[in-house]
Amino acid sequence: xxxxxxxxxxxxxxxxxxxxxxxxxxxxxxxxxxxxxxxxxxxxxxxxxxxxxxxxxxxxxxxxxxxxxxxxxxxxxxxxxxxxxxxxxxxxxxxxxxxxxxxxxxxxxxxxxxxxxxxxxxxxxxxxxxxxxxxxxxxxxxxxxxxxxxxxxxxxxxxxxxxxxxxxxxxxxxxxxxxxxxxxxxxxxxxxxxxxxxxxxxxxxxxxxxxxxxxxxxxxxxxxxxxxxxxxxxxxxxxxxxxxxxxxxxxxxxxxxxxxxxxxxxxxxxxxxxxxxxxxxxxxxxxxxxxxxxxxxxxxxxxxxxxxxxxxxxxxxxxxxxxxxxxxxx
Length: 330
Known about the structure:
This protein has helices at 2-7, 24-28, 60-70, 83-90, 93-107, 128-131, 148-158, 171-182, 185-192, 245-253, 258-261, 282-289, 294-300, and strands at 14-19, 37-41, 76-80, 116-118, 140-146, 203-213, 216-227, 235-239. The chain is of the alpha/beta class.
């Protein structure tokens, strides 16, 4: 996806890529990088392994700020291939967050409101909760990549398939999906190979979280896939989750199709598919209604004699007919 961003000649504006982990050649892959891109290669600057001429004291800060200042008249996209490598080099989370904040402040001086900062970052990075907080920026677009096998696993395990023709799954699906994603079940599923899952690079799921718009925080679930037109002409396109091959296979196994998911839910018939008949014919229903139940018969019976208590005295009972309180004036 980073390569697609660097390859895109049709993109408006200019890209400044700060490379810490991958060289420009590795980022380019089989194609050449767009002419609208400025590459700042810092892969050779490793703290403790530099001579005096290339000391880390020079820092990439000044180089990227100089590049931004030269392109302020254009829409800018700042891409840092591995901000975690920068954090590891300077050994400070707070300094890394300060560096990111300074880049955003420099971008705010651009004449174009479409300028942005793109940071690929792993889900287990200690920087992630800091960089996604509102103290860094009120506006945020967070793209979280998931394996399509993870969605298929949730659909089969909890019988809650996402709406295949929409990017907005139900609240019930989100209540199952988000906790499982936080526990890292998607990564465990792919690494273990459970259910035939494996790591693939031609399609996937993107959880899109947008903060700062009119709706506050908006969360959607979309798909992506690679259009294979040869090694040098591959491109990434967005699609619905239901268009992915893994999701289609899971939906087919569950007996769910994209057409059925858009229909209004109907009441489930619990007697469907049974080997015996639980339904009643009209004559059977009429005969059943005429059957007098025991408790209704007891309620209809009325006794004609008054209630009387019959007591048979025991041999040990004292049945003295005299009144022991006869002498009392009561």
